[in-house]
Amino acid sequence: MAKLASKSGKITKQEKSSKQANQLALKIKERALAKKKEEEAEEEEEEQRNNTSDSDSESESTNDQSDAKENVKVEEEEEEEEESSQYKSFADFGLAPELIEACQQLKFTKPTPIQAEAIPWGLKGKDLIGLAQTGSGKTAAFAIPILQELWEARTPYFACVLSPTRELAYQIKETFDALGSGMACKTVCIVGGVGMMDQARDLMKKPHIIVATPGRLLDHLEHTKGFSLKALKYLVLDEADRLLELEFGPALDRILELVPKKRRTFLFSATMTSKVAKLQRASLEDPVRCAVNDKYTTVDSLIQTMIVAPSGSKDTHLIRLLDKYTGKAIIIFTRTVANCQRTAILGKILGFPIVPLHGQLSQSKRLGALNKFKSGSKQILVATDVAARGLDIPSVDLVINYDMPTDSKTYIHRVGRTARAGKSGRSVSLVTQYDLELLLRIEQALDKKLAKEVVDNQEIAILHKTVDKAFVQAIHEFKLFQENNKQRGKHDKRGDNKDREER
Ligand SMILES: Nc1ncnc2c1ncn2[C@@H]1O[C@H](COP(=O)(O)OP(=O)(O)OP(=O)(O)O)[C@@H](O)[C@H]1O
């Protein structure tokens, strides 16, 4: 919680109220801990009771029933075996030793289903549409076939990967750097918020792989002398359905005109558009559709719940959750920059280790926020949907939808920031009286009902007064943030490299 006495040693009114806030939150924490211990004890007893009762019921069930269950289980295992038995390791793909070594360094022992399905087709030179759940290894699924061919070709400007956000572009570059470490592969990241001149210099060094956001890449294609993608062999659209949306329309269409028609094209995402017209824009040539799951699904290791939180007490419900999951790595999603920044201020006033990430922050602040969260120095990241797709932070324990996402795709990508690469994770969505229709639409798309968490109203009532006081202070500080932003905006407008791309 926040520091108390001011420098003079006198406690001001404001500090007094935050002292009360701290004491109260401390009390809630102690009670939560005690409750947790009680629940754990009950669970243990329950488990003992179940173990005895299970063994009883097993003896009652007829043999053929349990055999039948056993048979189904064996069949399922056999089926799974069949599908992926062909590729038990990355060596089975016939990759260059340097690539196999890089996979081992990354502890990629066994290809994931999307990798087992997509890599062979990619190695055969086919265009790909890759659809697989969040956190299932799609990045390596498209990077490996490209690096394998680059190993033989070694030509500059070999492949270009487009990403809808800067943070994801940096992350994709890191994957190429790691997988290409043994083959002197040169990768550059071309995104907004960074000086055009430095990037032009990087591009003149003839890198093999360019990972970029569409707006800034187009700036260079149109203004950087001597730079073109005429020699390009591969174009990848990661989070393809997002890139094919209107927002990126003009930039993407222009880029598609400036790259060779004769090339390989890969589209990957956890949610794909079925609008053929959109897909045709990417001018795929007889693509192979590698769909590990045929519709939008979230991973089984993700526990998804919701809390009915009237809009007037949504912040109190949020603070209760942050208190309940103290010490866990949490991403909070909001629908607007204002909600994002204000929530970060509110959390900070109440002493939580929280940092904001949204498109109105400078690029250095955005990178700083992500690094603080990844390193664990800030355990709570509150973000807009700029962080919804692709970000791979293995330590995320919990995703909270402070604002319900406006569509099921965004929901899938947001909650997919946890429970990645086979790990478990949890998501909680705060549903106000205005979100019920949205919730229904999302449950229908997922074909799954979100379990409802019951919250102790008395706990909310106790906490509400304190949170409300902090909220008033947060609004005041948010207004100052907005003022500063306006000043900075005026300064940037005078700058020479106004970013064109989306945030
Ligand atoms: N074969 C593998 N074995 C083990 N871990 C893997 C393997 N392939 C990828 N990973 C790890 O799984 C995590 C998720 O990978 P990646 O970010 O590519 O998932 P994704 O499918 O692109 O997710 P999203 O849909 O959210 O973008 C990463 O930490 C990556 O290092």
TrEMBL record:
<feature type="region of interest" description="Disordered">
    <location>
        <begin position="483"/>
        <end position="503"/>
    </location>
</feature>
<dbReference type="GO" id="GO:0005634">
    <property type="term" value="C:nucleus"/>
</dbReference>
<feature type="compositionally biased region" description="Acidic residues">
    <location>
        <begin position="75"/>
        <end position="84"/>
    </location>
</feature>
<dbReference type="GO" id="GO:0005829">
    <property type="term" value="C:cytosol"/>
</dbReference>
<dbReference type="GO" id="GO:0005524">
    <property type="term" value="F:ATP binding"/>
</dbReference>
<feature type="compositionally biased region" description="Basic and acidic residues">
    <location>
        <begin position="27"/>
        <end position="39"/>
    </location>
</feature>
<keyword id="KW-0694">RNA-binding</keyword>
<keyword id="KW-0690">Ribosome biogenesis</keyword>
<dbReference type="GO" id="GO:0016787">
    <property type="term" value="F:hydrolase activity"/>
</dbReference>
<keyword id="KW-0698">rRNA processing</keyword>
<dbReference type="GO" id="GO:0003724">
    <property type="term" value="F:RNA helicase activity"/>
</dbReference>
<dbReference type="InterPro" id="IPR001650">
    <property type="entry name" value="Helicase_C-like"/>
</dbReference>
<dbReference type="InterPro" id="IPR044765">
    <property type="entry name" value="DDX47/Rrp3_DEADc"/>
</dbReference>
<dbReference type="InterPro" id="IPR000629">
    <property type="entry name" value="RNA-helicase_DEAD-box_CS"/>
</dbReference>
<keyword id="KW-0378">Hydrolase</keyword>
<dbReference type="GO" id="GO:0006364">
    <property type="term" value="P:rRNA processing"/>
</dbReference>
<feature type="domain" description="DEAD-box RNA helicase Q">
    <location>
        <begin position="88"/>
        <end position="116"/>
    </location>
</feature>
<feature type="region of interest" description="Disordered">
    <location>
        <begin position="1"/>
        <end position="88"/>
    </location>
</feature>
<dbReference type="Pfam" id="PF00270">
    <property type="entry name" value="DEAD"/>
</dbReference>
<keyword id="KW-0067">ATP-binding</keyword>
<comment type="function">
    <text>ATP-dependent rRNA helicase required for pre-ribosomal RNA processing. Involved in the maturation of the 35S-pre-rRNA and to its cleavage to mature 18S rRNA.</text>
</comment>
<feature type="domain" description="Helicase ATP-binding">
    <location>
        <begin position="119"/>
        <end position="290"/>
    </location>
</feature>
<dbReference type="InterPro" id="IPR014001">
    <property type="entry name" value="Helicase_ATP-bd"/>
</dbReference>
<dbReference type="InterPro" id="IPR050079">
    <property type="entry name" value="DEAD_box_RNA_helicase"/>
</dbReference>
<feature type="short sequence motif" description="Q motif">
    <location>
        <begin position="88"/>
        <end position="116"/>
    </location>
</feature>
<comment type="subunit">
    <text>Interacts with the SSU processome.</text>
</comment>
<keyword id="KW-0547">Nucleotide-binding</keyword>
<dbReference type="InterPro" id="IPR014014">
    <property type="entry name" value="RNA_helicase_DEAD_Q_motif"/>
</dbReference>
<dbReference type="InterPro" id="IPR027417">
    <property type="entry name" value="P-loop_NTPase"/>
</dbReference>
<feature type="compositionally biased region" description="Basic and acidic residues">
    <location>
        <begin position="493"/>
        <end position="503"/>
    </location>
</feature>
<feature type="domain" description="Helicase C-terminal">
    <location>
        <begin position="317"/>
        <end position="462"/>
    </location>
</feature>
<dbReference type="GO" id="GO:0003723">
    <property type="term" value="F:RNA binding"/>
</dbReference>
<comment type="similarity">
    <text>Belongs to the DEAD box helicase family. DDX47/RRP3 subfamily.</text>
</comment>
<keyword id="KW-0347">Helicase</keyword>
<dbReference type="InterPro" id="IPR011545">
    <property type="entry name" value="DEAD/DEAH_box_helicase_dom"/>
</dbReference>
<keyword id="KW-0539">Nucleus</keyword>
<protein>
    <recommendedName>
        <fullName>ATP-dependent rRNA helicase RRP3</fullName>
        <ecNumber>3.6.4.13</ecNumber>
    </recommendedName>
</protein>
<dbReference type="Pfam" id="PF00271">
    <property type="entry name" value="Helicase_C"/>
</dbReference>
